[in-house]
Structures are given as C-alpha cells and as structure tokens.
Write a structure and sequence with these properties.
alpha/beta; seven-stranded parallel beta sheet; Dihydrodipicolinate Reductase, domain 2; homotetramer; 15 strands; 353 residues; seven-stranded mixed beta sheet
Chain lengths: 353, 353, 353, 353
C-alpha cells in the first residue's frame, strides 16, 4: 500500500479531506483541487462542519473548473472511494477520533492539528491540558517537516503536520544547532509575529477588525503550546529557549526573529554555508542575500521558508530571520509537500508552477 | 426642570450613561468624561453589560485623571445621584424599557438607539420588525439633529439621537431639498460607505479581520432600516430615494456620495451659497472648497460633517459628498451636542478644543 | 501571421513584454510566465524601466521554475526572438512610440495603456490633454473587451486593453443598455471604488501608507479620463452619465455600484435573464445570486467580473454592482484573455486552473 | 531667563515651532495648539517647509478654534515674538544650523532630531555618517527623557528630545540595568516593531500602501542609528546589546520586546517592584498587570509608555515589553513633557485631560 507509483497521465492519487471550512482546511482544499496528480473528495464531518459559506457567484458561460465531490464522512467512505490518503484539518480532539479509523481502513493519514506532534501522552497532557485518546499512535507518527525528516516521511502511515510557528523556528535554528555551533548557555530566542489567520476562523473579540486594525500585541509569552515541537526538532532545551508570539494586523504570514550566540566567531559566508549544506535538497528553503530585507510579501501565497542572517562585528551574535505563509508552508502547503514525499511524487508538485 | 443654568465654575451638569461597553457608548463615556461642564456616572445595566474589558495598565506616578463612578442602574439612581440627563446607548428594545423610567424620575433622556426616531408605531414595526413598547413616547421624542431641529431640542425631554448614515445623508441633502431645488423625478441617490465599527462590537464572521481586511462589499441594498429617518428629515419620498450601504476596511468613518439633478441650472457658487445659508449657525458643518478632495481622515475623531459639491457642465447634475465619524457626529458626539443644546451650554462644549 | 495554430504540446506562442516593473506589467509577467502555451521574453525599455527590485531570496535545493529571459528592447528583437505578440504596459506616450515599431516588425500588439482606446485624435486630446502621435492607428485598434468584441479581437493586429474602471462599468451596464431597457433621461450613475494599486506604483503623498490606511476619499468626480471608454462601449451619452472614483484602503479590487431606472417594470429574474443572454459565451462573467453579498475578496486574484442586481419594489429602480480585480480582469488578466482570443487558444488558458 | 514662572490665568508661555509639516512636527503643532498654557507661533523655514497641505474644509457657523500665526523664521523673530522656547522638528543638519541661533537670541531650545543626542562629535560622525557642525553644544545638551533626567532638564537651555525606539527601549531596560540586576554576559535584546509614520512623511517605495499593507519586514538589523542612545542612557555595552527594527502595517505605535537574564532568580512581584521604585514619580509610565496583554491600541494617541514583564519558571529569563505612540511619547508628546519640566509647569499639562 505504501509504495505508490503513478502510472500514466492524469490524476491517480485519491485523497480525502476532513475539515475544509477552517482557514487551513480551505487552503488545503484549494491546493489539492488544483494538484494535477490528485483527485480530491471532501468528507463532511459534523463536528468540523463550521457554518455554510455564503452563496457564491455562478459563471455565465462554459466553465471547466473541476467539480469536487462532497460526501459525508464515515470510515467506509475510504474504501468505497478508494482513498490513498486522508487529511484531517480538525481540532486535536477530533483528529484523535478520526485518525485511528482512517488507518484501520488502510489509508495513510496526514493530520494538521497538534494531536500527534509530541512523542508521549505526558507531553501532550502538559501542553494541551488534556489526556490523549490514542497514545499508541504517538510513537508511530512522523513529524512532517520534510526538510528534516524526509526519509521517515516517505514510509510513514501517519504524518503529524507541524505547527506554523515551529516550522518557522525549526527551519531557522536547526542547521546551527545540529552542527553544535550555538552557545546555548546564552539562550536561544524566537520572537515570532503572525497574521490573524493563525488565530483561526472563529470570530472573537480578539479577531474583530476594529480590535486588530492599527494594533499589535504580544501573547502566549514564554508559554505557547507550539514550544515543545521546536525543542524536540530543533534540538534545544526548554531552559535555554524563549518564545514570544505577537499578533500582526495582516491576514497571513509569520516572520520570526531569532537571536543566538555562536560558540566561535564565524564569517557571515560560513554561516550561510551551514544553511546551504543542511538544505542542499530543500526546494522550499530560500536564503536571502545579505543587505536585502526579508518580508512577508515575498513568501505569502507560496510554500517557501525564507531565511536571512545578520552577524554582529564580533562574529558571534547572530540574528536569523525566517518568513513563511502560516497557511501554506505553515499548514496546507506543507501537508501537500508531505503527501508528495509519502507517495513518491515530485516534492514540489502542486506547489510550484 | 428643563431650564438648566450653570452657576459658577466646575462641572455642574450631572449625567448618567447606560450602555458604555459598545463602540458608541465607550466613545460617549470618553467625551463626557473629559467634558468640563459634566459630572458623569456610569450606570451598569445587566443586559447592556457586554464582556469585561481586559485589565488595564496602571500609572506608576501620581495621576490626576478623574475617576468616573460605576454604579448599578436602577430608576432610583437618578434621584439619589441628582442626574439631570441620562444617555442610553443600548439596543432599541432595551431603550424602550429604560427611557420611560428615566423620564418618570424627572431626568431628560438622550437615546442613541433607533427606538424613538420614527414617528409612529406602524413605521417602527415596518422597519424594525417588532412592535414598539411605548408608542406614546414617539410623538414626544425630538429627532436630535441640531442643524435642523435646534429649537425643538432645547426644550425636549426625550431626544432620539440620529443614526450614523442618516446624519451624513440628511446633512448633505436637506438644504437643497427644503429649498425645492431638486428634480425629484430623476431620483435622489445615496451611496454610503462605513467603517466596521458601524457594524457593532459583537464578533461575527462578517467583522473578522481576515474577512474585512483587503475586502469591500455592499449590503442592505435599497433596504437599510436607516432609510426612513432620511426620508422624513431630508424631505424626500421613498419612491424617489435609493440607498446602498458598503463596508469599508477601516475602523471608523462614513463617506456618502449623493447624486441628484437640479430643477434649474445653477452655478457651483450658488449651490454652495444654499448650504452656507442653511447652515449659517451650524458650527459642525464644514464646506470643502472646490478642487480639494474630501476624506475620512479629516473628520475622524471630530464632530464635523464635511460637505463637498461637484457640478456637471450642464449645471444640473450634482454630486454631493458628506463625511462624518460614525462614532462622533454619527453617534456620541452628536449626543453631546444635543445635551449642550438641551441645557443651554455652548453647543461645542466638550467637542472643540 | 494572424492565423496562429498550436502544434503539439509545450509552449508555442512567443510573447514579449515591455514594461514589467509597474503593477500591471508585473502581474502580466507572472501570468504569462505560468501560461503553459506561452514562452515569455521580457524586453527592457529604458524609459519604462523603473527602479531595480530588491535582491530576491534564492532556493537552496533544485528548483524547476522557468527562467524568463530579460533582453534590451529594440525593434529587431521581435524578429530575432520570433515574437508573435508584444504587450506594452507602458505610459500612453511611450506606447504611442512603441506600438508602430512592433506592428512594423510583423508582431501583433496588446497595449495596456490608454493610448489606443479612443476612436479619434480629438477625443484623445480632450481626455488625455495631449496630441496623439499616431492617429492613424486609432481606427485600426480594437477595444479589447472580449465579452463585447470577441470577433473583432480574433483578427486584430492591435488590441487596446480596456481601463480598469471601464471594464467594471461596461460589464455592468452594457446588457441593459444595448437592449434599450434603460430610461436614460433619469441618468446612469457609476459610483466606483478602487484599491490603491489602481493609482500606480509611483510613490506619492497620496499613496503613502499613513495617508491611505484608515482613510477613504473621492477623486476625479465627474471627470475621470476613463469615462469616454464607458460612454462608447456601454452606449450612453455623456450628458446622461455620472461617474465618481474613490480610493479604497486595499491593495487591489474595484467594486462599482450603478444606479439606473428601467423603462418598464421588470422582475429581478427577467433582469438576470438579460445578463445571462448577453453573456452566454462569457466564461469570466459570474452572476451573484439574489440575497448574497458581492465583495472584492471573491474576485481578487481572478479574471472574473462578478455582477449582482437589486430591484426596488417598483420594478424599475435598479442597483447593479460589479466587482473585478483591477490588476487582473482590469488589466493583466484581460490582456492574456485577449491574447488567447487573438491566437485561437482556449479563452481561459492561463487564467483558470 | 531659565526661571520661568507663570503669572495668572491664560497662556503665558510663548513657544515657536520650526518644522511643522512632518509627522512629528504636525503632531507637536496640534499638542501645543491645544495646550492651555502655551501661545504658539509657527515659524516657516524654507528647507523644512515640505509641500503645502491640501485645502481644508471651512466651518459654516461661528467657530472658536484658536488661530495659530504662521510667520517666516528668522532669528530676530524670537525677540520680536518674545518666544521663551523654540522647538525644532527638522532634519539633524538643519537643527545644527538653527539651534545656535535660537540659543543666541536667548530662547531655550528643544530639538526633535538626532543632532544633539550623542555626547561627542566622534560618536555623531560614526552613527550619522557626517561631521557635526557645532560639537560645543553636544556637551551642553541634556537628553530629554524626563523619567531619567528630570532634574537636568529643569535647567537645560538645550534639550535633545529622544528617538522613538530609544524611548521604548530605555524605559523598559533602565530600571533593571541601573540596579545591576541583569546578567549582561547573556546579552540584552531589543526586538522592536514600529508603525510607518516612524519612517517619515517622504513618499518612497518602502512606504507605498501596496508595499506596506499585509506585509511585515525587518530592517536596520544590529545597526540602527538609535542604538547609541540606548547604550548611553540605559547603561549597556554595545557588545552586549542586539537591536532589530521591524516595519508594522500600522500608522503609529512601537511595541518592543526585550529579552534578558537576571543575575539572581527573582519573583515577578519583585521585578515589578523595581519598576515601581524607579518610576515612582513617573506619570507616564504604566505597568501592565500580569496575565493581560500589552498592545498598541492602549497607548496610541497618548503620552504613556506601557510596560509588561513575564518571567520564566526559573525566575531568571525575563521578557519585558514596552509600548509607546512613536509620535507622542516617542516625539511630540515627550517634547511637550520636556517643555513642561523646563518651565515649571505641571508635567502632564496639555498631555492628560
């Protein structure tokens, strides 16, 4: 089952999506709906349904857009629709219900929630404040950051798609940390800023336009539930790491500014070389040339993670900036990238023109 | 009771405010709290309470800001606090409960809802879709647009503070209509655009930042409940009037563009003269010089209504633009202006520096 | 030369683009760069060059994005690069220089400026305030709104791509006017609102973020240079038409609200039927169902023009709303659509997934 | 000259302002124009003139706004207008010309540029890339942060009004650093985010609405010219300090997030007590209660600097957030506060209601 090979032209991978009304799910439905190798089925799950969208306008003349079927979710839908893979863009407690059913029916699963990102039930309990319903799956799940774990993802049955903040932070920090170039005793700092879609589609006083526009604020200072993903995957101890989230008055995009100190003085070129080596196979990591300015506008709408380094004259104090679109590389695009890796497709299929 | 006279320096008018958590109420609390002639009491009404605001920062050193008392609303609070006037910034059905109690206790009332703006219970039923609880007060209520009804407001016990859209539309249209200069058969059009605070503080999918930012939409096309106020006060028949509301991605401000045809050709100067004559006593109507561009930025945060006219070469087709801050001239500022008129204060007290 | 037929798979139409640093030109470079049937060459013209963009980030791993050649513009470049078509996204006075050179070299031309949209040099002089350098081309040019002029566009050597406001206004008004359903004596009104990219990329006090954000203003009231395109193509006299432009605090998008009166009472269904008939072949006109709300978010990033009608109870006063992305259907997308029609490609190639 | 005493009611301090078309200067003109103790004269300086503003609307009825005289700047204007103090909101090279003339005429000067903030010509040369025209004044100038230097400001002839970023950073860092509570070897980090008005009123590609909206970017990483002010006044070595500036898509406001490590574990209460003690006289420093969220909306339009601390469980890693309005506490409001201190007025006069 796991060795998928595409035979001939036309869509040949069959994918299901549960949870397509939230921001990540809607973005994923769009990406999969345009993916040349994928035939998509939307699986309507009661608890993940959300409100009905407003009536949409209808084209007058002939229009060739693919029609995407909507059917009710039930485990048998996997076999009756011959689904190879099912995406769950649902809250973590619902994902915990659905994923075992998906796997039991013989499909592979890519979960966009935080349900399967941590390695133990104890960690999950600590950071999510609830017991995990299926701790046995935590061991089996592979953390879906292809830039770090491509080989494991290839054969995984269950991929835990990373959080948006962790994607930005890990991509920025991992190359230097894994090469043991960082003086951890000086602290590793991630000051992250995210657009409002990161807070979800549920209306609340905090996401009201009048509250957000012309405003900017910090939240979850030193205690965001995305922190343990960073610790585990970038390789840094909790006692050495500081994380602050901020809410930008933008629809999307994360820019994270990292501060760290190198063990030994390096040149900026040498620092960039570390990234080049670590990401030699990474098609979605881009390095910003020195002197230019990283910005959300360059990554929004893409699956790229852009990285930029600035070194102090002492050759040790380093500022690393990473930018992603929180709904693409931070969610839906990365999920597609994971699917591509899992099924032997071109890793950039459906993500680059 | 109605002949208030200020004796000596310092605040001497005692005002109560019910409903201070919505946008208009909060704006009004700010204006009244800084008004040199007013001592303000906030009256906490259960149904109008809203959620508690976030904890606010506290100044370190000595700070001289007036402390505004919060007390529970009950009718007896009017006499025990010697209130001269009570503002109600509450939904229309609550205003209908509260205003009779306020008047019965001997205070004057200024209501910011739509509860008392229409002259008959039948009209109210038609536009608000509900029966009016106190039709007998509709006759007594004075429509609180001082530029039109200053004399009646002076002695009114109950003032119905106008809607935000009607304030912009009536100020733009009334001078030409009352002088019978408009060819009504060609239609009188008001194309109005408002910032999001006009939609209220309640979070909803329509006010979510991600929905509003970089977006613009029309709503309530030809059927806004503010229409009858315009018809009655500007003096135009429903069959000759067209109104469309639009939602701007801004926090505040209304700009309304009006299209009409004059009966006889006029010069632009003559048109402006009509406005100058109609508003000779109006301190908050400003006329834009020809050639310049009206904009929200010039009125936001003020009680002004700015007006600008453009005449086609035929001297008959006319575009009249009016701009207000929907929360000031369209709500709280106008309520203060009404209070100033009712109690013989300087009409601009607390509204101009 | 004009009967282009695509032989076999892969890009086979060769296109040049002069002027790719402005908003429309950059959008067009993006659309053509991803168009499966087009091989694009960017032609660097000194006067249209603009400032060099900031240095862009570079992908670490292998990346398959097509490289688009940049070469200096000179007339001989057309033959040496075997260009079938050249787009000019340049100011009108530069387009007047370039287009005759392009045509003389045997390529077809699509001009995005206003240089060739009006039928006579006198009209051009009146609205653009300058003499036209090549009046002989005005007769030859075809107005590139495929929904109206598809047949003429097919064989045209020179297509004048419409303005953004006219695209929105003509699509909304033309079906009713050409069927003589409108009482023109009551006036035809277009109240149009556009995002800031419509004002061009040149920095000015009027496009500064601090000036635009949280602001909204009217401009070019009754005298925009886009007006004559509407008059000519929708079929309405200047004396019956009123147009006002407004600047929205958004990056893109136009929403235009039209007010008109029907000669005879109609039902809303009958009105929509007029549009359905007029646009039976139009793949980019979408009709909004009654009751729903048209908005920029639904068209931005697409080549659609969305249309929505509201009828007063008298069956005669009508509000027609149209929405487009000013850079796509209002500029670059429409230019691609014109190219598709001119060269016998699928009209939606490169514009729909 | 320096011992100003206010005699009787009404404005009695006479102030001049050179440079009133930029954002800071216009904000200052507004604050001084409403200040009950100040009579303001605008001094028109050729090089600082900027473009003429658009024509403004004119009130119809009587209006009592104070008329502020505009006269040409020349040194003799100081004596002929009996000016006690002159504000210069001009570029640093122009301030260096003007301030000696102002002082020579016997007025006191408050300069809003960076011309007099650094102690030596060498420092000025290093950070501003130009020779200082009047190094002798650098010694005489007092750094105008009243929370730190109130006593020196009282008697100063020349006050150098602080930069916006330094105001936010120094207010956040100084109490802990002066009490020697910080482990400087771990680094002191200031990650600062500012609204667009901080970039000045001059239109540029970087301040174009289309570039800024829905975007966010970092700039001046580790090398902003505001850094030396922070080092000198907060008391930290350049080798221990890291500063990054970011551009927010807002009109105003700075939020700066600081990361530092305490020498010894402390409780959060003890940390806040350090701030309370340091700012016991500071009327414009507000401390946010734990658990709440600092935000721009709470300080914009005010002269407050809001501060919020979060401590890690180890009692040593500390995040300090400070918020100011860059045009008020970061420029014009602080200039008024300095004037109040210099002339023995209530420190909050004209700044609190």
């Amino acid at each position: 089952m796991n060795n998928y090979s595409k035979a001939g032209p036309g869509p040949s991978l069959r994918a299901g999506l549960i949870g397509y009304t939230g921001y990540s799910g809607a973005e994923l439905a769009g990406l999969l709906g345009r993916h040349a190798d994928v035939e998509l089925v939307l699986l309507n799950h009661r608890k993940a349904a959300g409100r009905a969208p407003d009536a949409a306008p209808v084209a007058c003349g002939p229009h060739g857009a693919r029609t995407i079927p909507h059917i009710p979710w039930e485990p048998r839908a996997i076999q009756s629709n011959k689904l190879d893979v099912v995406f769950t863009a649902t809250p973590p407690e619902i994902s915990q219900e659905l994923v075992p059913e998906i796997l039991a029916q013989g499909a592979r699963a890519i979960d966009l929630s935080g349900a399967f990102r941590l390695p133990t039930a104890a960690e999950y309990q600590r950071w999510y404040g609830a017991a995990h319903a299926h701790p046995e799956l935590l061991e089996q799940a592979v953390y879906g950051l292809p830039e770090l774990h491509r080989d494991k993802i290839r054969t995984a049955s269950l991929v835990a798609n990373p959080g948006c903040y962790p994607t930005a932070a890990i991509c920025a920090l991992w190359p230097l940390l894994k090469n043991d170039l960082v003086d951890r005793t000086a602290g590793v700092i991630c000051d992250a800023k995210s657009g409002v879609s990161g807070a979800g589609k549920n209306p609340s006083p905090k996401t009201h336009f009048v509250q957000v526009s012309e405003n900017f604020s910090a939240y979850a200072i030193l205690k965001h539930r995305h922190v343990p993903e960073v610790l585990l995957n970038a390789g840094v101890d909790e006692s050495d790491f500081a994380f602050t989230a901020h809410l930008l008055p933008t629809q999307r995009g994360i820019l994270a500014t990292h501060y760290l100190r190198l063990k030994q003085p390096m040149s900026l070129d040498a620092v960039y070389d570390v990234y080049r080596a670590a990401y030699a196979e990474a098609r979605f990591i881009r390095l910003y040339p020195a002197g230019s300015t990283p910005q959300l506008a360059t990554v929004n709408g893409t699956n790229y993670c852009d990285i930029h380094c600035t070194l102090a004259p002492d050759g040790r104090r380093l500022v690393v900036i990473s930018c992603i679109d929180n709904l693409v590389k931070g969610a839906a695009g990365q999920a597609v990238q994971n699917m591509n890796v899992m099924f032997g497709l071109d890793e950039a299929a459906g993500l680059l023109p």
